Fold this protein.
Amino acid sequence: MQFDPTRLQKYVKKTDRTRPLFFTGRAHEMAIAQRSLDNLKDGDTEGNTVIFQGAPGAGKTALLNHIKANIRDKCDTATLRAPLIESPGVALFDVFEQLDPERAEQAKTEHRTTKQGGVDLKVVGGEIGVSSLSVPEDIKTVQQLMGLRQSDKTLVLFLDEAQNAVGDLSNGRSSVLQTLHEGGVGNVFLVAGGLSGTSAKLRTLGVSWLASENKRTLQPLHEDEIVASLEAFLNNKDFGIDSSGYDIAPLKRLVVDECMGWPQHLTNTLRSLGEELIGTDGQLGACDLNAIQQRSEALRAEYYLGRTEGIPSPLLRELINTVPENGGVDPFEIYKMIERAYADEPRLEKMLPSDDAYEELVRRGVVQEDASGNLTIPIPSMRSYIEQRVKVQEDQEGAPSGGAYHER
Ligand SMILES: Nc1ncnc2c1ncn2[C@@H]1O[C@H](COP(=O)(O)OP(=O)(O)OP(=O)(O)O)[C@@H](O)[C@H]1O
Ligand SMILES: [Mg+2]
């Protein structure tokens, strides 16, 4: 096919990238999801949960969407929206509407709709309220919903941004999550995605006794997986890129080095390559590798700026002094580090209240849990960015104040 700049332009400009065109890797995560699903089908377990967690840009949403696309033919799928979980009736009715819009509409007319947008579902011999306080009633609501579903396929619910879920019960748990996870309604599989620490959060919401293999922190993609994505991009027939006779080894190296396994950077580097190709009429041989690298570096800096925005430099300085370059520290060390930074520089409190500092570092993915539960600065290039930012700040302000700097 002939080179068509409009298609490449569309790719470069695309803003919703939660379904990457050149999805790569994550075989282990796919296997985890498939195994749990099989266990459920075989009746080994009733109800099940897997949790994929990781920093922003690690690829959680893309993974959830990929799993969904893979199982769509065999299972019923729907989204369980984290911000709705606080109101079980609303959250479940939203699921029901996705699964069976017609019957959901019918239920709305047959039953009383609650103020919050949920529905009072009736069962023989009584009425079930969308109570936010009593477990049994909420469980019945879920059961009723499943009864209305009229499908014997496994139902797979996708809960992205799970760190935002809030319980509805007086003990802090979520009747919906607890019931689904414990199999109270059978044949429902929950696939959750969220930032580091989400599995601990879900535990407090009632997703307890989670098998360790059902909880996974997304790690960087392997070099070969990055290359596979690059090749899929170059060979994509729609673009019509001409790479004949071109030695792609230096380009592969460049892409691998720029990405460091990080999906977000893979996207940025492929975008940079796409922009360059638009300028060379699709001739790979005419592309300037330096220009691609500079573009992708600029996108990366922009991305890190967004992630560290609002986090005061003295706190970041203390962080890089606390977390070793190729390792992690116990979360407790991060709490201690925050205490130190705020004791040394009381003005930080105005910039970011100390009570919010830990969560903010996790929420922005400046730190991420590794497989053993320690916290790391997940991408080497982010660490370099932070070091640079701290240095620039210090140069502007003069040397750091006395006790704030802890040599290690
Ligand atoms: N396996 C993958 N293969 C190729 N590209 C990927 C993959 N996973 C993610 N991406 C790309 O990386 C970028 C970040 O992915 P995604 O939005 O899924 O991250 P996330 O972990 O959900 O981030 P956030 O916490 O900000 O929601 C997107 O541009 C996405 O297209
Ligand atoms: Mg996401």
